[in-house]
Amino acid sequence: MVRRLTVFLLFVFVFIRVIEAQSIIGTLVDDDTQQPIEGATILLQAADSAYIGTSVSGTDGVFILNNYVKEYCLVIQHFSYQTKRVLNKGMIVDTIRLIPKDYVLDEIVIKSGRPFVRVKDGHLEYNLSVFPGSRMATNAYEALVKLPGIQENKGVLALAGAEKLTIILNGKPSTMNVGQIETFLRNTPVNRVEKVEVMYSAPPEYHVKGAVLNVVMKRSDNYFFQGEICGDYKNQYFNSGGMNGNFRLSISKAILDVMYSAENNKSMEYMDLYSKHTLLGQIYNIEQNEQLRSKYWNHNLRTAFEYDFNEESHVSISYTGNYVPFRHNNSLTTGNYQIGNVDKYINTRMHNVTVRYKSEFGLDIGGDYTYYHSDNNQNLRANFQNGEQDYFDMKSGQRVDRYSIYADQKHRLTRNWELGYGASFQFVRDKDFQIYNQVVGDIYTQNTSSDLKETTTNFYVSMNKKSKTGASFFVSATGEYYTISNYHKWAIYPQASFSYSRSLSHMFQLSLSTNKTYPSYWNMQSSVNHLNGYTELHGTPGLKPMTAYSLNGNYVLKQKYIFGH
């Protein structure tokens, strides 16, 4: 009898172990407090989104699904947390962190208004889906302009209290220039943006110094397609306009984004100049009116492909191109000193390829290559009041090759500490020239040619701490070795931020940032650029980067009203 009972118990034990071996087991925790989450519903779906089974997490945050499949998707839902999708293989699921919903506080749901901003990890985070200003916006760029503290001046966004603002996409610097970023955001619907993060002091893993506007795009569900075609027309002295189209295709674990725009730009503006010019002890009153015209076609193409290995690991590759095949700028000047005409013909093209890989264990690596080429032809004719005449033809060009790589690593430590470290390297080679032909008159001309090589090496260490009391702080130090021509410079750039939000009605944020501004390659040349017969622009050889430090503070009242300095 005892032997039969022993055999039976052994059979039951083996049966239970077999059942457990065919189960999917995981744990849910709060992303802020790291505490287990009880009562969450976990839906098990096959790779083709077919329903398989359901489970509920226990008091320890653990859930068990007995319907094992090789590849599957978990959909985790909880009334206090944002819904999360996890793609996975295998029976053991890594700890899943759920992000609390903005309107939950100590198990009390706030129903008297939908918050659109919160302080998180030392920065302001805006939810555009409920932000009042985004309701009247037709694209993402118009929504950004309506954010508190954001100002626009001729297509350039600025942040109140910050010397310079850099726009990045999904936590990494964009390879597009300011104009291309504006075009991209104007072609992006508001509903494709998940959130916007405003940082006065960007973390070093962003590889950007100073203030940052981080636009985080939404990740599409399985088997999703969305496209848009639109056009615009403008009349200001001339007829101009353009067309653009974009689409997003999501198939299982892959996402494809394509955007193309073509704009026919025609513009005209007037500039009046009044100058008291001193020459040989005598003052001359100079008055002139300048008419500036420009017309060109601008083509932008961007395509990106992303593949998700699971919820935390993915790889992406993107291409960005800009083409201006023929741009004509004209300047017609009249006045009491000279009557002049300047024609400038420009042909530019830019190509960029970016590759990025993010792992589930906190490693983020990537690199990009940018090629830029510009050909310019300019001729100037100026007739002066004393009967003299200046005339020249000038040909110039520029080629830029830029290579950059980076690697970042994060570790979650005990007691809600987080350690980060990383490095980046960038090499730029700029070759440009300027050659004058058929020079007539008393005009200063100088043929120039240069070959600049610039390298920037950065390495950093950062620490981040979140407290259950509602306080969090971040501190980092970045070491940089910068070289250009014969200039070599070592520097250390500190950054820090502190935020406190004991309740959703009162939130405080304080940040110390370091901003570094690099002079353009053209400004560093000894060349002279003639705008007309009177106005010249002289380059300044030997310019060095400029470093500025700033301290900013913000107080957010009821997640809607922001007071800052």
UniProtKB/TrEMBL annotation:
<feature type="domain" description="Outer membrane protein beta-barrel">
    <location>
        <begin position="363"/>
        <end position="563"/>
    </location>
</feature>
<protein>
    <submittedName>
        <fullName>TonB-dependent receptor</fullName>
    </submittedName>
</protein>
<dbReference type="InterPro" id="IPR008969">
    <property type="entry name" value="CarboxyPept-like_regulatory"/>
</dbReference>
<dbReference type="InterPro" id="IPR036942">
    <property type="entry name" value="Beta-barrel_TonB_sf"/>
</dbReference>
<keyword id="KW-0472">Membrane</keyword>
<dbReference type="Pfam" id="PF14905">
    <property type="entry name" value="OMP_b-brl_3"/>
</dbReference>
<keyword id="KW-0675">Receptor</keyword>
<dbReference type="InterPro" id="IPR041700">
    <property type="entry name" value="OMP_b-brl_3"/>
</dbReference>
<dbReference type="GO" id="GO:0009279">
    <property type="term" value="C:cell outer membrane"/>
</dbReference>
<keyword id="KW-0998">Cell outer membrane</keyword>
